[in-house]
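Table 4 source record.
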Amino acid sequence: MRRRNALSAIALAPHWVGAQPGLMRSSTLLEQDPATTVAERVMREAYRRLGLELQVQAMPGERSLISANSGETDAELYRRAGIDRLYPQLLQVPVPLLTYEIVVFTKSRPFAIEGWESLRPYRLGYVKGIKIVEEMTAGMKQEPVATMQQAFVKLDLGRTDLVLANRASGLAALHGLPINGVRVLSPPLATFPVFHYLNKRHEALLPRLTATLREMERERFIRQVQEEELARYAEAVTR
């Protein structure tokens, strides 16, 4: 009877995916884009230098944060500063991986971007789980979707007026879609660095991971990765 109860307890216990020695599993946004690729390459090298293997698991945006905060995964690959106020089990690794630039994509006639409030008359497409967009457009006509591609398809069909996204991520999504006539409006709505986050159960790792990323920063490894990945979409940026 005790054996049966023990087996039942094991079956019902949470699956701690980072339990395998030497393996760190990080959740991240569902789709691949330049920002994700930069963050993954940088963090994979940082963990390698510490004798650890990084495994990245893509999820919908909100699910990714919940997973890292609950400890189902070991880390969140990259998010803006301050996300730990909403997800208190996350620890920010204080070395920026890249700079995010939230911009407006549209197919309609351009209009003056005068901060977030200037978006109020429009139907706003964005990827669910991008917290800054969710927070700054609260009470507006939000049209969240699971992927960037879905956001642009809805824009192309006239079901939304604008897409709000990281500039490089949006251009990368457009690069693979048969959609023409989309333009980027200026100025950006927001510009900010993004950071890796650890679940608090890995707090002991934070100083070593920070020191390793600082070293990679001095070596210009992080800058080199950024330049290599973003150069792939230079043509799309200027079109």
